[in-house]
Backbone:
């Protein structure tokens, strides 16, 4: 943990991301998985989530009420897009 700008100590954590992209002509479909080892209490410390709920482990240094955020954790996402190359338009 290190203090940002001399303030509260920030928690150490790791994020990871894995994804696949499928292409067909100009269309692309991306499937992604992201996760972190950040606890729900430390997630509140990092995000300041206004929707955080009590019930976690209190830490007098940076989360005295033990607020827990649901903003961090495993997520699946998908993106759909397309590429247009102006040089090939009209061919």
Residues:
């Amino acid at each position: 943990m290190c203090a940002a700008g001399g303030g509260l100590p920030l928690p150490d954590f790791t994020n990871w991301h894995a994804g696949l992209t499928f292409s067909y002509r100009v269309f692309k479909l991306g499937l992604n998985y992201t996760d972190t080892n950040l606890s729900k209490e430390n997630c509140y410390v990092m995000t300041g989530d206004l929707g955080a709920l009590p019930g976690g482990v209190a830490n007098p240094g940076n989360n005295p009420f033990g607020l827990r955020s649901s903003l961090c954790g495993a997520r699946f996402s998908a993106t759909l897009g397309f590429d247009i190359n102006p040089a090939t338009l009209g061919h």
Summary: The chain has a mean pLDDT of 89. The helical segments are 40-47. The first helix runs from residue 40 to 47. DSSP finds one helix and five strands in the chain.
